[in-house]
Design goal:
This protein is mainly β. It has 4 helices and 37 strands. It is globular, with a radius of gyration of 25 Å. The N terminus is likely disordered.
Length: about 525
Amino acid sequence: MKIRFIFGVMFFSWVLTSTGQQVTPAPFKLVNSPYDEQAPVISPDGKTLYFTIANHPQNVGGKRDAGDIWVSVLLEGRWQPPIHAGSEINDAGYNAVAGFSADGSTLFLLGHYGKNGELARTQGISFSKKKDSGGWSAPENSSIPYFINRSEHFSGTISKDGNIFVFSAESYGSKGVEDIYVSLKKGNEWGEAINLGPVINTSFQEWSPSLSDDNRTLYFSSNGRKGFGGFDIYTATRLDDSWTLWSTPLNMAEPLNSQARELYYRVYPALSLFTTTRDSDRYGNIFAWLDSTQAVKQDTIKLLPNRYTEKSVGSFKKVKVFGVVSNSKNGALINAKLLFKTDSVQLQTFATNGKFEIEIPSTKVYHIEIQTPHYVNLSERLDIHTYELQTLEMNFKLQPIEVGAVINLKNILFVVGTTTLLAESFSELDAVRNFLHNNPQVEILLEGHTDNRGNAAANLVLSKQRVEVIKKYLVAKGISAKRIQGKGYGGAKPLTTADNEDARKLNRRVEFVIVKD
């Protein structure tokens, strides 16, 4: 039986160890208390942890206080017992940190503050400035047009650049109870809040949103999807600049999620933070989500962070996929990591001495990535959900990274006749960005090609414009423009001269050539 494979190329820097994950309260053993810890935020220098404790007797409002901000400092590698952050940034209402300016001099706070310590009746965000003498200035209220929150719950995060505020509230246009919104800052003014839409928001509750450093990945908690507990942590990718077009949210699964309530997932260089009520009498404690390196083991199957558990995929009929991974130039068998990903399942296995084997549910369409050091990583689409298979052999040949290597980016697609990228292009664009970011010595030449139909001059212009769109995207992601050359060829360099649609699809392509390694 013929199985249809669609080939492309993706790139990452890879170390010959696998990345596993573990959850642990250990880093915060001295921080967590018998009370409710929520909304942890680490300062830009990585040395101070700000978080909220509810119902603590030392809060401004005493045991009935919904939450005050407390502070823990990192000394000799250990987070120290927390101290109350003081009355300047705490009042009798709910107080929490939303984030910092990049230099750490400005503290963004949830809610508005009243005069003389009075609880403000208005809602929104505030900011406080770091004082030379230490501590923070009295908060200044910041207005968001038409802001309203009908819920007692309010959570949110300021982006690293200070220009994006994602938050959870029951406001205008809410799909159910609390929805996630975004407000964008233009100059010194915040814009009207935008509901992130029905892909993110359900008829139930979406809480505690945060963003990745590039502002494209959203993390949030929801009790409106089938998960492991009351609130589970999910992740989704923003597909354009509208803030309403998102990939399908993925449950980040066990061991991160549990039958308890998981909230406030935030990513930092050394670790990721979240809160959970596991083992804490329904009160939140701060946990760490840590990387742990493991030696590569043959025929090992592990689940990645953004995936369902083995139990959740166990009910599906499975196919055994096996084969070898080799060097495309000399045929030598090589060690590699293989990822099998769908919208809801991510599995991984390892090829040791070139050989691998894995069982996967047969009801899915997969994107397979093969990663190993010093080679161009291969990406492939596998559609087996309409076939009755028990076994499938797949052999992969990887190309060494070297000057002159030509990489065909078949998953970067445009709307016909335009420079508008299709949504499915972003994952591969981001992969190219990661490759260049993690291999700073590499320089590339982007090449754009069309088929030979239509006006040749117009095709040449279109291919140049598409290359420029891709270059701008990579530069906006932090890659130096000096490392990326670009050239459009129109239809002048076809891969095939056959006159049929399959041939034309081959000729319509974006490639890059490694010009410096």
